[in-house]
Design brief:
This protein is of the alpha/beta class. It has helices at residues 3-13, 54-66, 80-90, 124-133, 148-161, 175-185, 213-216, 220-236, 324-339, 348-367; strands spanning 45-50, 70-76, 97-98, 114-117, 137-140, 165-167, 192-200, 242-247, 262-268, 274-280, 285-292, 295-299, 310-312, 315-316, 371-372. Mean pLDDT is 91; it is low at 1-38. Bound molecules: nicotinamide-adenine-dinucleotide. Nicotinamide-adenine-dinucleotide binds at residues 22, 25, 51-56, 78, 118-121, 123, 141-142, 168, 170, 209, 223.
């Protein structure tokens, strides 16, 4: 079973439908796209998706079709067949179709307000910096980059170009997540004392970029463990003081010669809240459990595309089920149309805070030491 199949069947078990696997990567010199009719809609922000793989195709394109205040205005792809397929499907004119070589010419394209980078992690820096230099606002997928250094360079490039940088933290706009943030940060059940947060899935195809450290930056921690780190930060509204961490023994030594198969970590927050985190490419698990002075809350599924389910000691949480990417795109664009800024809580600094913690978890696992974050 390929990774996409494996990830898909796991997510489908959770009620999530994903489409087909991304086609092979190739670099074209010319795009054979017929001229379509220009479709700039003045009331909507034009978004260009860069990297038309699984997440762009199955989630973000759907979000852009459904969102009221933005639309898929352009694409950037290395695969001519995808350029043709997407252009036809979304009525994208040839002048809004780019490859990775001519992408910088997007600077002259008034139809494109935002470039959304959806490539393997190690390429985020290059494309965010190029989009910023082209004067475009940028959304970038999580994890923001594969190093703290790259994250800082991306923030700097966007600041220097005077463009907005947002990280695709879709759960920030998801109602169950917003409710746990409210309960945690408003101390509805008193102080949070302990959190258990897990996210993992069984990975397939051994050749995929997620298993290559140079492209992914690490294993499950970078890919899905980041959601657990996010959760512990947004439930407490605090930054962790320190981390300790351990790698699990590698069981599949062929598949996991480059990145970790499983990692556990512990952290403590200034209020005293303790966190146990776990991430794996060997376990289908996703759960958030929060124990507070006067109650508990639990999300399970907690982090995938949903439907997310939750309960507290008062019973089942009744929140609307939404399409995560649609509400994220709508909220980001709503804020931008009103203020010329992306929401602060998903900005580059937020991405950088996570990157520092992820790197500290790796350092703790490698050294066996407690790593201070203050
Ligand atoms: P994918 O492999 O399906 O797609 C990656 C795309 O990048 C492909 O279209 C590929 O052709 C293109 N690409 C460009 N240059 C490449 C190169 N040199 N090597 C390989 N591919 C290259 O991956 P994906 O699952 O779509 O993930 C893309 C990004 O989106 C990652 O950063 C991932 O973490 C993120 N993601 C986020 C979520 C979420 O829920 N927020 C979910 C899935 C993926």
């Amino acid at each position: 079973m390929s990774e996409n199949q494996s990830r898909r069947s796991f997510l489908q078990n959770l009620g999530v439908g994903l489409g087909t696997t991304a086609a092979a990567f190739a670099v074209p010199s010319v795009m054979a796209i017929p001229e379509g009719k220009p479709q700039k809609d003045e009331k909507k922000l034009g978004v260009a998706l860069l990297g038309l793989g699984s997440y762009a195709k199955n989630q973000l394109a759907v979000g852009l079709e459904n969102a009221k205040n933005c639309y898929l205005a352009g694409i950037v792809t290395g695969t001519p067949a995808k350029a043709e397929e997407w252009s036809k499907k979304y009525n994208i004119p040839a002048k809004n179709v780019y490859n990775y070589q001519n992408f910088d010419e997007i600077a002259n394209n008034k139809d494109i307000d935002i470039v959304y980078v959806v490539t393997p992690n190690s390429l985020h820096r290059e494309f965010v910096v190029r989009a910023a230099k082209a004067g475009k606002h940028v959304m970038c997928e999580k994890p923001m980059a594969t190093s703290v250094e790259d994250s800082i360079a991306m923030i700097k490039a966007c600041q220097e170009a005077g463009v907005q940088l947002g990280i695709g933290y879709r759960l920030h706009f998801e109602p169950f997540t917003q409710e746990v943030v409210r309960i945690g940060q408003k101390k509805v059940f008193g102080d949070v004392r302990f959190m258990q947060t897990n996210f993992g899935f069984t990975i397939g195809d051994p050749t995929q970029w997620r298993l290559k450290k140079a492209m992914a930056g690490g294993g499950p921690l970078m890919d899905v463990g980041i959601y657990c780190v996010q959760a512990s930060r947004y439930v407490t509204g605090e930054e962790p003081l320190w981390v300790t961490a351990q790698y699990g023994e590698t069981i599949d030594k062929v598949k996991f010669k480059d990145v970790e198969e499983t990692v556990s970590w512990q952290m403590q927050f200034p209020s005293g809240a303790m966190v146990n985190g776990f991430s794996s490419y060997r376990s289908n698990i996703e759960q958030l459990y929060v124990s507070a002075e006067k109650g508990f809350l639990q999300l399970s599924p907690a982090y995938s595309y949903g439907p997310i389910k939750g309960k507290t000691q008062e019973g089942d949480m009744k929140m609307p089920v939404v399409h995560h990417q649609t509400v994220m795109l709508e909220e980001v664009c709503k804020e931008f149309l009103a203020t010329k800024k992306f929401p602060k809580h998903i900005d580059g600094e937020e991405g950088l805070r996570d990157m520092k913690i992820l790197m500290a978890i790796y350092e703790a696992a490698q050294t066996g030491k407690r790593i201070s974050l203050v």
